[in-house]
Amino acid sequence: MLRLAVAGTGYVGLVAGVCFAEMGHQVTCVDIDENKVALMKSGVSPIYEVDLEQLMRKNYEAGRIDYTTDYVAAYKEADAIFIGVGTPEQPDGSANLSYIATVARQIAETIEKDCLVVVKSTVPVGTNDKVEQFIHDFLAHDVRVEVASNPEFLAQGSAVHDTLHAERIIIGTESEWAQELLTRIYEPFGLPIVSVNRRSAEMIKYAANDFLALKISYMNDIANLCELVGADIQDVAKGMGFDPRIGSKFLNAGIGFGGSCFPKDTKALDYLARQNGYELRTVKSAIDVNKDQKTMLYKKASKRLITLNGLKVAVLGLTFKPGTDDLREAASLENVPLLLEQGADIFAYDPVGAASFARLYPEGPCARGHMSYASSIEEALDGANVCFILTEWGEFRAVAPETYRKLMRTPLVYDGRNLYAVDDMKDAGVEYHSIGRKPAIREGVKESR
Ligand code: NAD
Fold it and tell me: Ligand 1 atom closest to Cα of 260?
């Protein structure tokens, strides 16, 4: 058992802290947000992740995890301190490292025994060298401190499972002492450990994330071409996926990637390349394709309809993907304002993301349109002229195609997640536009070009 502190209780920090406790370590999670800490102490998770709350309660009751804003108490006795604070995008595309720097300084000024500082946040290559130097510059006591890189690969929506059953743990260290300590921390997980140097670990995170982003943008690019030449992207993906060199995962076309990672990590790597006099053309293309893809459905609908003004528009799905309440870089944040500017009367439904979205777009008049939140899919669809599906929540997939025809004023559906078979929608009498597939056009409706 080791005494661990975790700085930041977001998706990465909280899940890591809880999983370390589950593996028998003594964990203190630190956050600057007092409300979050009070919530966590009462057994409530500030974020939505399957199984998280149950593990929080179990380990809190067992005395293996605690939550605090008192970083001094948490850091001074820790064997290792994990940093999981945000590294958001700055206007120029670079990563904002100010949260990391704040924690680094707090650590330097408080630790009273030898300690390994482990950066879990996604940071540009070379950052950990600087963090280590920074800590040494501000160190208040004569202790040994080293910095290790331990990038996180969890996916929101399955964060606990991904942490407990990770395909690999990447540890980037510059000494045997650091490597051994990190290996001891991860030993109880029984997972493969890939041990590399610090800069390689930092690069692995970006290279892996950006590769996935590229895969998505590539499929979206091919999907757009499929529409033009009469091929079907789902059949194409199926055929491609049999090749083990390609793999069958991450081949779904849609309305682009969002979330807190792919958008900022592609931009940050592009920025790092430019800073080093190199143009990372592949990643730049992934960014460009994604930008256009996010409003693909809106553009299609604008061509099809004479106006959106005064139309009741059902928006199904607000979060950037299912299984999370996270809205960061979600397609909804691009499309809802465009629809409102055009005067649409929006009825949005999301199983967990509506409350956060309503803080940004409260109920009532907005721009030229109006924003409302429905408490069910049926309420959103009732009397709607158009429906946009933006997130692939399981409960949307379970809606029978006939429901759209029965409930909507005009059954016109724009599906950014390809949830339905085109022929099923056609048979149900729904006009259906999706990504990379031929549309289902109802009788008597002219296909728009
Ligand atoms: P987040 O924004 O959800 O959480 C960050 C937390 O840090 C917040 O609760 C904030 O209050 C807290 N914080 C800020 N300053 C602090 C300080 N000085 N001391 C203690 N707490 C402080 O962030 P996240 O989504 O968990 O991401 C964190 C990092 O992990 C980022 O670099 C991100 O790129 C990376 N990452 C995220 C994911 C993901 O799916 N979210 C996956 C892999 C890697």
Answer: 41
Active site residues: 261
Which two three-digit tokens encode residue 410?
């005009």
Q: How far is the CA of 41 from the centre of ligand 1 (A)?
A: 19
Question: Which atom of ligand 1 lies at the shortest distance from residue 12's CA?
Answer: 26
Distance 52 CA to ligand 1 centre (A): 16
Please give the model's pTM, rounded to 2 decimal places: 0.93
Separation CA 168–CA 216 (nearest Å) = 22
State the pLDDT at residue 443.
Answer: 75
The whole-angstrom separation of Cα 426 and Cα 263 is 35
* Parts of the chain with a pLDDT under 70: 446-449
- Closest atom of ligand 1 to 261 CA is 34
- CB neighbours of 341 closer than 8 A, spacing ≥ 6? 367, 368, 369
pLDDT tens by residue, 24-38:
999 999 999 999 999
- Expressed in angstroms and rounded, the spacing between residue 10 Cα and the centre of ligand 1 is 5
Q: Over the stretch 74-113, which tens digit does the pLDDT of each residue have?
A: 999 999 999 999 999 999 999 999 999 999 999 999 999 9
Q: Calculate how far, in angstroms, residue 14's C-alpha sits from the geometric centre of ligand 1.
A: 9
Q: What is the 3-state secondary structure (H, E, C) of 340-393?
A: HHCCCEEEEECCCCHHHHHHHCCCEEECCEEEEECCCHHHHHCCCCEEEECCCC
Start-to-end Cα distance in the chain: 65
Q: Tell me, what's the pLDDT at 449?
A: 54
Give the binding-site residues of ligand 1, using a 6 Å CB cut-off.
7-13, 30-33, 36, 84-87, 99, 102-103, 121-122, 152, 154, 156, 260-261
Cα(443)–Cα(420) distance, rounded to whole angstroms? 19
Instruction: Name the strand (E) or helix (H) holding 314.
Output: strand 312-316
pLDDT given at position 447: 65
- Measured CA to CA, the distance from residue 240 to residue 248 in angstroms comes to 7
Alpha carbon 438 to its chain's center: 29
Question: What order do you get walking across the sheet with 115-119 strand by strand?
Answer: 65-68, 26-30, 3-7, 80-83, 115-119, 145-149, 169-172, 193-196
Q: Delineate the domains of the chain, giving CATH numbers in brackets.
A: 3-196 (3.40.50.720), 204-293 (1.10.1040.10), 296-433 (3.40.50.720)
